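Record pair follows.
FIRST:
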Amino acid sequence: MASLDTRSVHAGEPHPRIEGAVTLPVFQTATYTHETPEQPPRYIRYSDSPNHDALHNKLAALAGTDDALVTASGMAAISTALLSVLDAGDHLVAPRGLYGGTLALFDTWLPRFDIKHTLVDADDRGAWEAALQPNTAALYAESITNPLLAVRDLEMMTDLADTHGLVSLIDNTFASPVNLRPAALGFDVVLHSATKYLGGHSDLAAGAIAGPTALMEDVRATAKLLGGMLDPHACFLLHRSLKTLGVRVRQQNETAHAVADALSAHRAIDRVRYPGLASHPHHERAQALLDGFGGMVSFDVVPAADLDTFFEALRLPVRASSLGGVETLITQPVHTSHRGVAPEVRAALGITDRLVRLSVGLEGTDDVVEDVTTALNASLPPDA
């Protein structure tokens, strides 16, 4: 099989090239002629434009699956996938500490379809087993969690799903296909917020669902009815961005590791969460599972440091939600990704107002390290 970088560039490209165009043009049309009535009509809501087709083939090649589908956002991908594999009366098991939007979907919308869920300790197989019910239909996981960067015991989860005949779904946004291909571990459905690393330029919103042919037929049918399709121009932008996915993510891996090392030695930091550090509780698992430790770093700032001063002193990181772009982004998860999560739940997880999440971009590694450490120095009182 060709390398991931080669697949990023060449997989899914039309042959022969359309009108000889090396770069796939944007097919900005909502409908197509239907001159052969025996064939299904082509229509933009069906996600079957030439832009969609090429993108689906490229995403499937990167994920190592039979098929893939793009959606209007990461949450559209998650909700479409779940509503494709779950029926009224079904039950879902997932680990604690999921992304806030996913938790909101579990808590507020799935119950409207009579779909219930149980959250368990992620690494306790006994807890997973105990949570299973006769109507349990699926397991759900995240490869690297947001924002605490836990690395789950993914092989245990797929073994559990296989043993009990359950559909296994995983959000692989934080790892990206560069660092992890969950389908190779046995996951049935792989999900991404393509707004993040797959898009990589903070200029589009998209989601991706990848999986085996039979299951993806159900996903496509659900997506047609829910209508969360991606516009052809956004498909074009995502298709373009995927060609540089490998080089971008590997550079972000390198910079994030350097930042994590520097933060670990800084007196303003109480704790650093990065899977590449030996101090990370899942470091050995991350070494075994991942090809790279990712571009995200989370850290707790000591009480003596003034967070407002720290953020004001930063020159390179942009204080904003989202992640995975070419510019370094920084945020407090209590105000963004987990704003809607109950305070007591956040506290139990360790998501406090002193927790900061950093998504490193493509600036020079030394520049990012210097800027963050300089801002931390400024946040401390003179006698600290």
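SECOND:
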Amino acid sequence: MTLIQEIGRGGMGTVYRARHEILERDFAVKILRSDMRRDPVVVERFKREARAASRLEHPNVVFISDFDQLPDRRFYIVMEFISGKSLREILNTEGPMNVTRVCSVLSQIADALDYAHEQGVIHRDLKSENIVLTQSRGREVAKILDFGLAKLVSDALDMQSITNQGQIFGTPETMAPEQITGGVIDQRVDIYAMGVLTYELLVGKPPFSGHMLQVLMAHKKQAPPKPSAERKGVPPELDELVLKCMAKEPSGRYAKASELVAVYQAVLHQAAVTANKKTQPPSVPQRQGASSVRMDLATDERGVLELKLHQSVLEIAEHLRDRNLGSARITQELASILEQEEKLVDLRNRKHLLQTQLDSIEVSGRERAARLRHAIISLTLETKGNLEQDGAPKKLAEDVRFQIVELERRLSEVISDQERSEKELEKQLASLVQELQTVEHEIKKNRDALFELVQAARASIGNSSTLRNAYGQIDELRQKIARIPT
């Protein structure tokens, strides 16, 4: 394995991108700090804990593929290389995320935590820098880095709270009170960090910030703030989640990360329901006295009945195929329909993802542009006010004007990037919609053909009560559909 370049450096060690010469794949190699190589007891502890971390196999956890020591006895860990941006980088460049994206990302993270906790592995340093978003098969996937490494390093250094540099081990902004005081540590420190992370992604900053000691004291003594106090439109369920995750006493928090998944998914479901209602065109009564509500219900009822009819036809076709009744084409049409319907589900999922991405880019671009415009306006007013008065430092005025020019350049970049991204996604979406329409048309043709074949086979069913009842059901469904106004 050849080290190609340094890609990160932190409290645990240095990370390199490396190329595996035989596998011809890139990996990330983290060489841990030299403090860990001194004590043979530490070496055995590291190996035991590293094995536990390497057993984690979850789609949202960066896997560990190898660990060992260099000739100078420094430990190194070989991990999956992820091409993407950390949540911290995304927040720095794009600002706070919209609610649906937050819930989509964090439901993945919470699921990974639940899995790891069941394996007895705690992260202990979960933060926005340790979560990377990448693309996989057209969807956004969150990956947790450094799973278990916080425990490996802190155990190896054999220190409860203070390193030899005189700093708290871990990240003050996300540390649970019991981590600060050296109390008993369990999976609920990760639950606490999830509350911090939820707030940070929604608001754009952690709930407590400032000088390290101030932050630590706030985690110990201050009540956590609600995200909705800083940002409009945050659902009350997420306010409650943050407050419960960040309870001072571990007993006041969620017991399992799976409980967080349920909350995030509930918010996503409600958002989807609301979005569907908003996208439906307003009902217009067709004639005097007609109920628009009844017409809407009729449309929904037609869809349900047509789906039932299709399922009944498929069941009859399968019976006919299994009993060698009717045309041999029934088998071909069945196989074709099932294959096309699987493709249709995949296309619809991809369409939903693209639409979500497009909405996310639009919202985040608008928010970023608004913040930049606000900064430009504020600095412009300051330049025209205090800085242009007699006696104002010339250098200061020039600096402010330079900042304005830079902000305007950045605003232009944000708008251009957003337009470019939207055009690309819209192009992909248009192509996908066209493909969807083609598949839907083919399915309809095959369904009609299958229905005709099933009807033609009615005379060959003999005394089969099962098939007679099934044919009676499709006749009844067709009559119900015919009575619904179009």
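COMMENT: The domain at 2-159+169-274 is CATH 1.10.510.10 (Transferase(Phosphotransferase); domain 1).
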